[in-house]
Design a protein that fits this description.
Length: 305
């Protein structure tokens, strides 16, 4: 399902996330049914995956607001309390949530049930080979596996076949999407399957669908890094050499550098914003993970044709 999610915070506030729109109704006191499992997900993407697995049988709170970069997000005191009280915390891991790393480590050491998805779905290494790429949610097949991991963890908390039943149904949707994207990408020649990105976030998409990531504006897996002038000049040269027609930026980050690179490289280079670190608002076409991946694939194919 892709419906609304709702969660109880430490004071009984309910956070409703309906098709990407957050609604907070604070009501300290009046808690919901204490037998209902409480799940906290770090990102809107993971919140959507969790919601598809839990259905009406658990409440879900998402920490990082829509449109925010998960790399540098800092938790509020109320969110830390929610993490401490949750039956299950679902995080991405592999240093994606850099601003939350200390909080997540602390609540885990205090006994919180923390499930980090990315290390468990066959992560691929960054180019330097020293660290693994955390952006696993941009591959629908890996996220089908993620849904199964969440269902298995929930089953240890509450024996209920519904967790796995919903995960199986969601897996089928994700695998159907994978086939749909593969068919869409088939319209591009191998020579056209070249990506230049704002930061190193699209490697899973590239590996799954036969693209080459030729360069990045921010040559790092985190948006917190800063490129040197020499790196930017080298990227302009590479774009010119390859005849690249688009730089793929992100809705969660400023496009200033990407726009400057595109301008320097020539009038034929456009900047296309993709949904990478966050789902989109309601009506964006990217307010669920499936919608996000479909929208991104459409934008990429259209820009490179």
């Amino acid at each position: 399902m892709n419906g609304s999610s709702r969660a109880r915070t430490s004071c009984g506030a309910v956070l409703a996330l309906s098709l990407g729109t957050a609604l907070v109704a604070g009501a300290c006191g009046g808690a919901s049914d204490d037998t209902t499992l409480q799940v906290v997900a770090t990102t809107s993407v993971l919140g959507d995956v969790v919601e598809n697995v839990v259905g009406p049988d658990a409440t879900v709170e998402v920490l990082v607001p829509l449109g925010s970069d998960p790399h540098d997000y800092q938790a509020s005191a109320q969110q830390v309390a929610a993490l401490q009280q949750a039956d299950l915390v679902v995080a991405n891991g592999l240093s994606l949530e850099e601003g939350l790393s200390d909080v997540l480590a602390s609540v885990a050491s205090d006994g919180a049930n923390l499930l980090e998805i990315a290390p468990l779905v066959d992560p691929i290494p960054f180019g330097d080979g020293t660290t693994d790429d955390p952006h696993v949610w941009l591959d629908p097949v890996r996220m089908a596996d993620a849904a199964d991991l969440i269902a298995a963890e929930l089953s240890t908390l509450s024996a209920d076949d519904a967790w796995q039943d919903r995960s199986d149904a969601y897996r089928a949707e994700l695998l159907a999407l994978d086939a749909e994207i593969s068919a869409s990408v088939a319209a591009l020649s191998e020579e056209d399957r070249v990506l230049v990105t704002n930061h190193d976030a699209l490697e899973y998409f590239a590996v799954r669908y036969g693209f080459e990531v030729a360069g990045t504006v921010i040559p790092s897996g985190t948006t917190l890094a800063e490129p040197s002038s020499a790196e930017l000049a080298a990227l302009v040269e590479e774009i010119d050499r390859l005849g690249v027609r688009a730089i793929f930026a992100e809705t969660t980050e400023p496009t200033t550098l990407a726009e400057a690179i595109a301008s320097e490289a020539g009038e034929e280079v456009q900047v296309v914003e993709l949904y990478t670190g966050s789902l989109g608002e309601a009506g964006s076409g990217a307010d669920t993970l499936i919608g996000m991946l479909r929208t991104n694939a459409t934008l990429i194919v259209e820009a490179l044709q």
